[in-house]
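1st attempt posting a full record on here, be nice pls
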Amino acid sequence: MTKAELVQAVADATGLKKKDAAAAVNAVFEAITNSLKRGRPVRIVGFGTFEVRKRAARTGVNPQTGQKIKIPARKVPAFRPGAALKSLIK
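the predicted structure (as tokens):
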């Protein structure tokens, strides 16, 4: 599902105009993003948790040359589905 399809689904489900549904979807994405930027997880009961995970520095290999390279530590966004979502997908 693309963002446009998500906006259309929200508009259909709520009876909002497409423009208002797009604003609502964008507001949700912005709220999640801002929370993750501050290092705070977003827990949506029945759906899942968005969080920031730390990846440790490691040594990798360039597949073209076979040369070892150092990959620095970094933070990455992650999603962990909730039990209710998992049970719906099974």
